[in-house]
Specification:
This protein is mainly α. The protein has helices spanning 2-31, 35-63, 77-83, 87-115, 119-148; strands spanning 157-160, 166-168, 185-187. A hairpin with a 5-residue loop joins β1 (157-160) and β2 (166-168). The structure holds fe (ii) ion (2 copies).
Length: 192
């Protein structure tokens, strides 16, 4: 079972870094006058916090006590700031990170949890994996717009608070990732 504990800790470290990184990328996008891209980074940052919540719950069940993230999560603010580039390279970095999590990390973690019969961790990993795939697709879409110089219209953005799925304009009746109803979606603040 310890491999699942290690996987949950690694995922929590990755998600915590991604969460902070996207906040910095949102600030950068604002500075560069790409507000819609900034809101997407903000929304995805919030989505990663949902993954942190889910993984923390799964880990807490396994160790049968409260989880202290400070014991194994390292978010180095200075390094994250140094790595922050312009909005185009930040989008490329985000796509790479989300794709790695989708196609490699969570895929493997999910297999490990399944083979050990840990359904709670398996579900936490699989929801995160599917949501990261959506994140990668949305970042790719915005990266294409930016490359082509296509103006990005203002859209409402919603995040599913069960799985971290991100939807534009209108939350669906049921979340396509976790199947919870639209009442679980939270609208991200996108000021004018
Ligand atoms: Fe993500
Ligand atoms: Fe969901």
């Amino acid at each position: 079972m310890s491999v699942v504990i290690e996987n949950l800790k690694e995922a929590l470290n990755g998600e915590s870094n991604a969460k902070r990184k996207y906040e910095l990328y949102a600030e950068k996008a604002m500075e560069e006058n790409h507000p819609e891209i900034a809101y997407l980074f903000k929304a995805v940052s919030f989505a990663e916090s949902i993954h942190i919540k889910n993984h923390t719950r799964a880990l807490s069940l396994m160790i049968d006590s409260e989880v202290n993230l400070d014991e194994f999560v390292y978010v180095d603010e200075e390094i994250l700031r140094e790595k922050t580039g312009d909005t185009f390279s930040n989008l490329e970095d985000a796509i790479e990170g989300e794709t790695y999590e989708t196609k490699q990390m969570y895929k493997q973690f999910e297999k490990n949890a399944k083979s050990l019969g840990n359904e709670v961790a398996e579900l936490s990993f699989s929801l995160a994996r599917d949501a990261e795939e959506v994140h990668a697709d949305l970042f790719s879409l915005y990266s294409k717009y930016l490359t082509k110089g296509t103006p990005i219209e203002k859209r409402k953005i919603y995040v599913c608070q069960i799985c971290g799925n991100v939807e534009f304009e209108e939350p669906p009746e049921n979340c396509p990732v976790c199947d919870h109803s639209k009442t679980f979606f939270k609208e991200i603040d996108t000021p004018n």
